[in-house]
Task: inverse folding
């Protein structure tokens, strides 16, 4: 995948979390743009302890040649009655 395609997703405002699918069948969620460092041929994806974390505890290098597609992640909508 081209880095421009991923950069476009990262800079969409408001940010929409997305899932990256790799050629080996693995998939990874990008819930915060701060946790993905994009290069010309690879990216570094950080993983927090909790989905809402913006600081990572581990990371993974991913070659962009192995990214086959991206899909938006549906985020739950919180209710207006305080139950969200």
Result:
């Amino acid at each position: 995948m081209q880095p421009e395609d991923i950069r476009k997703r990262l800079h969409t405002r408001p940010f929409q979390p997305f899932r990256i699918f790799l050629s080996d069948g693995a998939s990874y969620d990008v819930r915060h743009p701060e946790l993905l460092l994009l290069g010309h041929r690879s990216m570094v994806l950080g993983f927090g302890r909790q989905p809402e974390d913006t600081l990572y505890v581990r990371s993974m290098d991913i070659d962009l040649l192995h990214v086959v597609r991206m899909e938006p992640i549906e985020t739950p909508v919180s209710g207006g009655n305080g139950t969200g």
